[in-house]
Amino acid sequence: METIEQKKQMLVDALLMMERAQIIDFNGHFSCRVPGTDHMLINSGKSVRSALTAADIVTIDFDGNLVDGVDVPPMEFHIHAEIYRARPDVNAVVHTHPLWSTLFSMAGLKVEPVIMQAAVLGEIREFPKTASINTKPLGQELAAALDKHRVVMLKSHGSVVAAEGIIEAFVLGFYLEETAQRQHLALQIGKPTVLTAEQCRVINGNLWKPNLLRKVWDYHQGILHR
After folding, report:
1. pLDDT tens track for 123-153
2. Is the pLDDT of residue 1 over 80?
3. In whole angstroms, what is the distance from residue 99 CA to residue 90 CA?
4. How far apart are alpha carbons 61 and 225 in whole angstroms?
5. Sequence-separated (6 or more) residues with CB below 8 Å from residue 118
6. pLDDT tens, 97-120?
7. What is the gyration radius of the CA atoms in the chain, in angstroms?
């Protein structure tokens, strides 16, 4: 199990890799639960997403109170807090501002499982309001929209991914955006084939494995540090 300092560095790397890939921009936040507590690690609201260090990761409780660090959390910390309250199985949450998948929510279209990696996303849920999730009630509504799933799209806003750990949430965020980009491009030349539920079940069993998820993380980390 990683130490708190290791988790902070993982969050830093994850955010930097997502920023390089244009999955987040000057906004966006990634958190992980502090095991055995009602606390989370999260990048601060004022942190520069393209130049993060471990000092930009703060510890807060689920009400947004600062436990460790000097800067306040992002105003949308409620996204993370309410998912953690509702989902004890979730240990990492990321809110992204991706280009391609957000186009689909803007147009009222679904991102479909058109590539194999999409099979691990599960059902992509929808949050119908276009709003900053900056209050507890909105956070609760979002957590309810996510329900027991992994991914929810925020209309004209971005996405939220909830998973077992930092690497899993990171990979899902990349797979969502890759799927949306491929679907969009395929629509320019024809009608993309959507995987069936049975195909998704089989492929998910093949791809949702720690070594394969780590392979995605290691690939992007190699780009980050080269």
Report:
1. 999 999 999 999 999 999 999 999 999 999 9
2. no
3. 25
4. 32
5. 111, 112, 175, 179, 195, 200
6. 999 999 999 999 999 999 999 999
7. 17
